[in-house]
Design a protein that fits this description.
Layout (H helix, E strand, L loop, with lengths): L6 H15 L18 H10 L9 H8 L2 H10 L1 H6 L9 H11 L8 H12 L6 H5 L3 H6 L9 H12 L4 H5 L4 H4 L10 E6 L6 H15 L3 E6 L22 E7 L4 H8 L8 E7 L18 E4 L2 H7 L6 E3 L24 E7 L5 H4 L1 H11 L6 E7 L7 H14 L2 E3 L5 H10 L2 E4 L8 H8 L4 E4 L14 E3 L1 E5 L12 E5 L1 H13 L1 H18 L2 H17 L1
Parallel strand pairs: 1-2, 1-3, 3-4, 4-5, 5-6, 7-8, 7-10, 8-9, 10-11, 11-12
Antiparallel strand pairs: 13-14
Helix pairs in contact: 1-6, 3-7, 4-7, 6-7, 13-23, 17-18, 17-21, 20-22
């Protein structure tokens, strides 16, 4: 970590000097071992020492006017090195050192500002535990050493042990109380199901939607849940950790991630201790028929595997653990429908739409073949358009972006290259006339399922996970031939097999939907009906709870 190893002693000397020169005690405190967040002179002095502007108002006013809590929180939850060097950094005992370090070194690439950190520290200071419970939830070592800390019977012994280990004292620590929502937690009743769910709940992606669908289905069946988010540095949806910081309270854990994230790594990133004696189920998503050789030991960390589709199940059998196909539910949240013009589409044209994320790898999503098929199907003079919604990750995939922009410009294809809130994305899909994907391989195919639920006639490559809910009767399946991956596209290794969709057949399918209104209405109606039945929350909940009860009975 930049600046952590050698400057720690320097920070301590600087901070000791500041303590001698400034008032550090909180109002009403007799001890002088506190960093006073409200001390404008002190906070300004730290900012100026680190080359920043002093405050013109009180720290509290500045923090709540301009600080972003979620950004400040992100710093501590993502930086394991910071949690190691500043284990008490959210609490009065060490928050001065923590804030001083950040002002000096920061984390420029994440866009976090000193006022964000200050806002987060003010929020922690306002909690009954003064940041102690929040810290425990991201310190796996503490969770292992004091497993019952966040219980009415374990809170005071935990505080006593922590005081002895870190020489903690002072009125703030003595008064730190267990938050009410921990104090009110009750054990499972006989026969009651409880599940810990680990997943990318705040990472805007198909994995986020998949994890959310799992927990919503379980909740609808009365299963008690403890949710734990695996934080990612980019593309968070803006929510804080509250509600996604659960421990492994229950005897069964579902791990909802991509197969590229090893189980120990998921726990490490989440700041979660792997409690012994828990039955662990991996709900793994993958997009190829084969697994990379380096992943063949992934099954060692779980007891069984739930595969979202039969396609994934076949690929995961080599991991040596029982594999249960477990088709997920897909539920569309309420959103406000919008006209075409408000979504960036042309009201005077028939609109085909494709949605993908560059992080999912453009060669697999295959938009260039889709552009070829579109141009093969329609003359530029015809009242029809192709719109491609793609996430703005241009700084990470410049060559792919160059290729996509060039192909789109040359063929009159519209790129919608900005982030959209979930409701706006669904409004865009709803405004389109048809959805089309010429993917090379999909583990499931979430956007295709969503399009069908929206009543859109859907065209897709007739290969991989989407075949669990797409048939020749409810959609337009494009012919394909097997092809080898010609170069490594991490995590997809060179030499593995995926599909090469037939662009001429795709062009015929697009032309067919455009020309034949009756046919597209028939396909759309059948697609929606089948998707609502197969991918319903009720059906998914029944599949999962039946298996959970089998595990519980064992």
């Amino acid at each position: 970590m930049p600046g952590i190893a050698s400057p720690v002693r320097t920070f301590r000397r600087l901070y000791a000097k500041l303590r001698r020169r400034a008032r550090l005690a909180l109002a009403g405190e007799a001890s002088g071992c506190f960093f006073d967040l409200d001390d404008r002179e002190l906070v300004s002095r730290i900012l100026v020492q680190c080359g920043k502007e002093p405050l013109e108002v009180s720290p509290r006013e500045a923090a709540f006017a301009h600080g972003r809590f979620a950004f400040g929180e992100k710093l501590y939850e993502l930086r394991e090195d910071l949690r190691t060097v500043f284990p008490l950094g959210l609490m009065p005992a060490q928050r001065g050192d923590f804030f001083h370090w950040f002002c000096r070194y920061g984390w420029p690439e994440m866009g976090i500002e000193p006022l964000d950190v200050l806002r987060m520290l003010f929020d922690q200071d306002a909690t009954p535990d003064r940041g102690l419970a929040t810290t425990y939830l991201v310190q796996p070592g503490w969770q292992a050493k004091w497993p019952n800390a966040l219980t009415p019977g374990g809170w005071e012994p935990f505080k006593e042990a922590l005081a002895a280990e870190f020489n903690l004292r002072g009125r703030w620590f003595k008064r730190a109380a267990l938050p009410a929502h921990f104090a009110s937690q009750t054990p499972l009743r006989p026969g009651e199901l409880g599940v810990n769910a680990i997943g990318l709940f705040r990472y805007t992606s198909g994995l986020q939607q998949a994890a959310q669908c799992v927990v919503e289905a379980l909740a609808s069946a009365g299963v008690r849940l403890s949710l734990r988010d695996v934080p990612m540095a980019h593309n968070r949806d803006g929510r804080g950790r509250t509600g996604f910081d659960g421990l492994e309270r229950f005897p069964i854990t579902l791990i909802n991630t991509g197969l590229d994230l090893a189980v120990p790594e998921a726990y490490r990133l989440a700041g979660l201790h792997r409690r012994p004696g828990v039955y662990r189920i991996a709900v793994w998503w993958w997009e190829l028929e084969q697994l990379p050789e380096a992943w063949l030991g992934r099954g060692a960390d779980v007891d069984e595997i739930w595969s979202p589709t039969a396609f994934i199940a076949n690929a995961l059998k080599v991991l040596g653990k029982p594999v249960f196909p477990m088709l997920p539910s897909v539920r569309l949240p309420a959103f406000e429908p919008k006209p075409k013009a408000a979504c960036g589409l042309d009201p005077g044209k028939f609109s085909f739409l494709f949605v993908f994320d560059m992080n999912s790898r453009m060669p697999r999503k295959n938009p260039l073949a889709l552009i070829d098929a579109f141009r093969l199907a329609f003359a530029k003079s015809e009242p029809v358009e192709l719109a491609i919604k793609v996430s703005p990750q241009e700084q990470y995939y410049p060559e792919w972006w160059r290729q996509l922009r060039s192909a789109a410009a040359a063929n009159g294809v519209k790129l919608i290259d900005r982030s959209l809130p979930r409701g706006d994305l669904l409004a865009l899909m709803n405004a389109a006339d048809a959805y089309v994907s010429l993917h090379r391989s999909e583990g499931f195919g979430l956007t295709m399922a969503e399009a069908m639920l929206l009543g859109k006639p859907t065209i897709a490559t007739g290969y991989s996970g989407n075949l669990d809910f797409m048939t020749p009767e409810n959609s337009c399946l494009v012919k394909w031939s097997p092809a080898r991956i010609e170069e490594d596209i991490p995590p997809y290794p060179k030499g593995c097999v995926w599909a090469d969709p037939d662009t001429a057949d795709a062009a015929r399918q697009m032309r067919r939907l455009y020309d034949d209104r009756g046919e597209r209405e028939r396909i759309a109606a059948r697609g929606r009906s089948d998707a609502e039945r197969i991918l319903s929350v009720e059906a998914s909940a029944e599949r999962m709870t039946a298996r959970l009860r089998e595990i519980q009975s064992q």
